[in-house]
Structures are given as C-alpha cells and as structure tokens.
Amino acid sequence: MYRSVRKDITPFNRFVLGERSVIEDYSIVNNAVGDVVIGNHTRIGLGNTVIGPVQIGNKVNFAQNVTVTGLNHNFHDVNIAINDQGISTQPVVIADDVWVGANSVILPGVSIGTHSVVAAGSVVTRSVPPLSICAGNPARVIKQYDSDKKEWCKV
Predict the structure, then answer these.
(1) 1 within a domain of the structure (yes/no)
(2) Is 127 in contact with 110 (CB distance < 8 Å)?
C-alpha cells in the first residue's frame, strides 16, 4: 500500500491484500462494515474508494477514482433523518481478470464476472456476466465474447 492510502481498517473484519497487489496513492480502504479481500496481482488505482463487504479477485485492474461499496444508507421513513435510519450491506464480488475504467461506481450486491470490462464512467447497479463489457449509467452489457466465433459481439 502506498504511503498516502487512508486505511480505515478495523480488527473485527478481515482485510487481505494478496501477493504482488498494490493500492495506489490517495485511495481509501474501509472494512468497518464488511470484509475487504483483494486477490493476487491486483492493482487498485489512484484515488479509489473500497468499502466492504467487497471481494476482488486476482489480476484485477482498477483505473483512477473508482468507487466500490457494499454499503448503503437506509432511507425508508421520510420522517426520520437518513443518518438515524442505519445502514445495510450487500457484498460486491469482482471475479478474476476484470478491468474497471476510471470514475466508475460499483454498487452493493453487484457481481462482475471473469474477464469482463467496466467502461470508464459507468455506474454498475446490477451484476455483469463473465466475458462481458458494460458501459453507461446505469451500466448495461454492450458486448459479450462469443467463444464459437472467437470475437466480441455487440449485444
């Protein structure tokens, strides 16, 4: 972990940083509400925020200013302040060999499948299957790899 990484790491939840993985400057890692597990040979880029519960696989690349969070604030009763309504968590799972583009946001409960790409600036609100490229706000799958044709095909 680079020197300027903000480490909001508690002893009652797990934090794992795999072999040859790096968290670059000005990033934040927070495991206060859930485990943060980062696999091997993974790069968490400049200015990223990772709030558990989050599991990130091997050989994953996050570009700059990516936010991944398993945390959400509850807001059910309009007569009660949001801060007084507590939080909820849903794990985020990012499989091996995923590339997440700059300024993307991955929200609670989302899974990103193996060998997938999240295009820059995407807001991922639902899971992405393996061998897919997603883009937009909200992100949607725009291409998938066709194993028979051995090429990426528009969806």
Answers:
(1) no
(2) yes
The string of pLDDT tens digits covering residues 59-82 is 999 999 999 999 999 999 999 999
**Dist CA 73 CA 58 (whole Å):** 29
In the annotation, is 76 catalytic?
yes
- Is 80 part of a structural domain of the chain? yes
CATH of the domain at 147: 2.160.10.10
Q: What is the DSSP letter of 120?
A: T
pLDDT of 130 strictly over 90: yes
- Between vectors from CA 5 to CA 71 and to CA 102, what angle results, nearest 5°? 65
Domain count, the chain: 1
Q: Has residue 14 been placed in a domain?
A: yes
Q: Is-contact 38 16, C-beta < 8 A?
A: yes
Residue of 41, 73, 76, 115 marked catalytic:
76
* Containing structural domain, residue 76: 6-154
Contact by Cβ (8 Å): 58, 97: yes
Q: Report d(CA 127, CA 79) in Å as an integer.
A: 33
Tokens encoding 39: 């696999």
Exposure class string for 20-51: b at 16+ Cβ within 10 A, else e: ebebbebbebbbebbebbbbebbbbbbbbbbb
